[in-house]
Design goal:
Blueprint: H1 21-28, H2 31-34, H3 38-58, E1 80-82, H4 104-107, H5 114-117, E2 139-143, E3 148-152, H6 170-177, H7 210-213, H8 221-224, H9 232-240, H10 247-252, E4 255-258, E5 274-277, E6 288-290, H11 298-305, E7 307-309, H12 323-326, H13 331-334, H14 363-367, H15 389-393, H16 396-400, E8 410-414, H17 415-418, E9 435-443, E10 446-453, E11 457-462, E12 465-468, H18 471-482, H19 490-494, H20 501-508, H21 522-555, E13 561-566, E14 569-573, E15 579-582, E16 590-593, H22 619-622, E17 624-626, E18 638-640, H23 641-645, H24 649-658, H25 662-692, H26 694-698
Antiparallel strand pairs: 1-6, 2-3, 4-5, 7-8, 8-9, 9-10, 10-16, 11-12, 11-13, 13-14, 14-15, 17-18
Helix pairs in contact: 18-21
Length: 699
Amino acid sequence: MAFSIVSVATPTFRQHPAQSRRERKAVDGDKGELGPGSGDLIMRFSTLIVFTSLLLAANGSSAAERSRFAETGSRSQYVHWIELYDANFNEIDPAAEHPAPYSPRKTCGRCHDYDTIACGYHFNARADDAAHGRPGEPWIWNDPRTATQLPLSYRGWAGTYDPRRLDISAWDFALKFGRHLPGGVEPAASSAPLAAAEGAPPEPATPGNWTRSGALEIDCMICHAAESGYSMEAWAHQIDEENFAWAPTAGLGIGSVTGAVADLDDDGAGEGPQVTYHDLKRNGEGKVFFNVVRQPRNDTCYYCHSNRTLGGPQAAWNHDEDIHLRAGMQCADCHRNGIGHHTVRGFAGEQHASGEAVVTLSCRGCHLGEEQGGRLGAPQPLHAGLPPLHLEKLSCTACHSGPLPGDQALPLQTALAHGLGLPSHDYTAELPPELVAPVFLRDGETLFPHRMMWPSFWGAQRGETIVPAHPEAVYDALRRTFRVRRGKTLKETLLEIRLGRDDKTELLGEERAGADEDEWTEEEQARVAAWVEKKALADFQEKLPEAFEALAEVVGPGEAKPVFVAGGKVYRLDSEGHVETFAHAAAEPYAWKLAHDVRPARASLGAGGCFDCHAEGAPIFAGKVATPSPVPSEESAVVAMQELAGYDKTKLDAWNQSFQGRAAFKWLGFASMGVVGFVLLSGAVWGFLTVTGVARRKD
C-alpha cells in the first residue's frame, strides 16, 4: 500500500457559524425560501463572488488572510465528531473487511494546519532554519554490544553529532528513537516542513521501505487524548514492527493491529499489517467521537520528560514532586504554545519563534519581574540576607532545581536515554548509557546545574578531526572480534574470565584456592575483582588491533585512522602498532542544563546558611564527578566540580577559610560599632551641654 502525501489545494470556505439557518439557506439558494428561479440567480452571483474573491486573494487582499482551517475562538472545549481518513485521503469505513489505518495528517489536518504544527519545537529538529535555543538533552544512540554511547542532535548543538553526517537516515532514527517521538519523521521527499535547509547535509540514502511502513506522522492524540487513553507502549511496539502508519491507530486504542512490515520478505511477500477497528462511538452521520483535550496532561509530558536519580539519599517513592506541580499547576501552564506548537522552554533570554514576549514564563521573569511577573499567583522571593551578587552569579536553578549536590554526582536515568515509561525488568543502575547529575558548570559568569554524559564510539581520525562511524556498520565489523552475546554488553563480555586453579592459588593462597566463591571474604572478593579487571583490560587492548583492522573497512581508505573514544580519552594504534591513548575534544563530556524538579525555598541550597556553599569541601564546588567508561580501563578519572566549572581552587579555599570566623567577626564588628557609637554619642552629648552652658553652671 502506498502512503503518498496528498494536500488539499483548494481552500474550503465555510459560512460563519453565527449565521442563522435561514441566512445560510439563503446563501445556498433554497428555492422554498426565496421563490422559484432565485436559486440559479444566486448560484451565478455566488460564483461571481468566489471568482472575485480569488482574484483579490491573488493580489494580496484581505481575503488572503482567510484560513481554510476551522477554529472556534472560544475557551470552551470543542466536541470532536469527525470522519476517519487514511494516508491517501480516502474516508475509512471501520466496518470494512480490510480497512486502512487512520492518518493524523489527513484526519486532523482537515481542520488543523498540520504543516504549521510540524514547525513546532517538538517536531522541527530536522529543520535547519528553526530556532533551536540553548543546548538540551541529546538523543543517545546506545549500543551495548559495541560500547557505543553517541550523542545525536539535528539542532547543531556543540558536542552532538548530526545524524545526517553519520549516514544515519530518517528511517534509522525513527526505528531507534520512535518509542519516545511524537511522530514527524517522514520520507524526506514528503516532509517539506522538516526538510533540510539549503546548504545542510543531505538526507542519506534511506534503507527499508517507506512505502510499506508509511510515514511516522505527527500523532496529535499522543498529547491531546483525554483520560489517559493513549498507550505509548502500543505506539512503541508498532514502530518496532516497522508499522509506522499503523502506530496512531494502535496507540489511541481505536483498533487492533496484527502482522508486521518487519516480517515481510525483501520482495514484499508475506502477510502485512491488518487493522480491526473496535466498536467505536459513532453518531447518526457515521462520524467517530474523538475525546480530545486542548491542554496536555502532566502524565503526557512525563512520558518523555521523566528523570530517575539513582543512589540518592531518598527512595523514589519518598521523593517529592516539583513544587509547582504539587501546588496544582500543569506543565502547560508555563510551557505554552499556540497553533504553531512552539512550546516555551522557559529559560532566561529565550526568544520565542512567534515573536511574543515570554519573559514572564521563566523563573526570573515570573518570580522576580519588576514590571510584570507574578503569574498564577507566583510569590516574589525576598532572599533576605542574600547579597545581590548571588543573583548575578547564580541561576535560580542552581539553588532550587534537581537533586541537592552531594559528595559525588549521582547516576541518572532519563526517558529519552533509557526508555523510561515502557515496562522493563532491566532498569538497574548498570543500564547504559551512563549519565550523572547534578554537575555545576558555568555559562559565562553564571553557575547552572547540569546533567552530563561522556561519549563513547568507534570512528575515524582525519587530521585533528574525529568523526564517529555509523553504529550499525561498526557492529557488523566488530561482532567477530568481540563476540558479544545477546543481552550482554561489551564490558560484561570482556569481564567473563574463568579463574583456573593456578590463578586462585596465586590470588588466595594454597589453602583458600579450593573454597567456593560465596565463601570468599570481602578482601578476597576485592582482590579477585581487581585481578579480573586488570586481565579484562589486557584482553581488550590485545583485541583492539584486530578491531581497528576490521574498522578500517568501515572508515574507508586514505589517511583516516580508526579510533575508539571512551572514558574521556581516545584509543588508537601508534606507528609501531601498539595501543596508545590521548586527550581530544571529541572525548570531552556533553552537558545540558536541568530545570526540574524545583524544590521549595526551605529545601533550597543555602537555606541552611552560608556554609552550604562556603565551607571547605562544600559539594557545590568540591563534589566529585567520576568519568565512567563502558569498557575495562584503568581507574576512572575523578574531577572536582570546581575544576569543571573553571574556578581557581586556591581562591575558593581562601574565601572559604575567611568564612570560618565569619560569625565571630560579625559579632566583633557589631561590638566595635557599638563602642564607637557610644563614644561618639557621649562626645556629642558633652559637646551639646558645653555649648548650651549647662556644664559651666554645674561647675
